[in-house]
Amino acid sequence: MRQEELENFKKVLLQKRQAILDNNLEHCKSMENIRGLSFDEADHVAMHMKNTLDSSIFTNHNTELEYIDSALTKIEQDTYGVCEMCDEPIAKERLKAKPHAKYCIVCREIVEKNSKD
Ligand SMILES: [Zn+2]
């Protein structure tokens, strides 16, 4: 992969990373706000948050963050864009759609199938 392309992916990844971190910060802030409320109010809001599955979105974001961090490490180590399973290069179209992809399309299907079973 050309240096120019790598730089571009790095930029996209860093932007995504920042967006997730900002989002987490917002989440923490709203948790802070809850702590400032009276017990009854806090309880009510906490229940509401649980119901809206806000916390699962939070977890998803953190998983994505891990993927992004590992993709950034790979850029530094010059192994970016290589499938972790078969060591084949991941298609650029795929990386453009999902710059933190770990697997090529073929391996991703295998991984998804296995995780479903
Ligand atoms: Zn693969």
Q: Any idea what the shape is?
A: elongated
Q: What is the count of β-strands?
A: 0
Bound molecules: zinc ion
Q: State the end-to-end distance.
A: 35 Å
Q: Key terms for this structure?
A:
5 helices; 2 domains; 117 residues; mainly alpha
Quick description:
The chain is mostly helical and 117 residues long. 76% of the residues lie in helices and 0% in strands. A zinc finger (dksA C4-type) spans 83-107.
Descriptive account of the structure:
This protein has 5 helices and no strands. The protein is mainly alpha-helical. It has 2 domains: 80 residues; 36 residues, no CATH class. α1 packs antiparallel against α3. The longest helix has 34 residues. The protein starts with a helix and ends with a helix. The structure holds zinc ion (ZN). Zinc ion binds next to α5.
Topology at a glance:
Elements: H1 3-36, H2 39-51, H3 54-77, H4 92-97, H5 105-116
Helix pairs in contact: 1-3
Residues 83, 85-86, 88, 103-104, 106-107 line the site of zinc ion.
Pfam families: zf-dskA_traR
InterPro entries: DnaK_N (IPR037187), Znf_DskA_TraR (IPR000962), Znf_DskA_TraR_CS (IPR020458)
Keywords: Metal-binding, Zinc, Zinc-finger
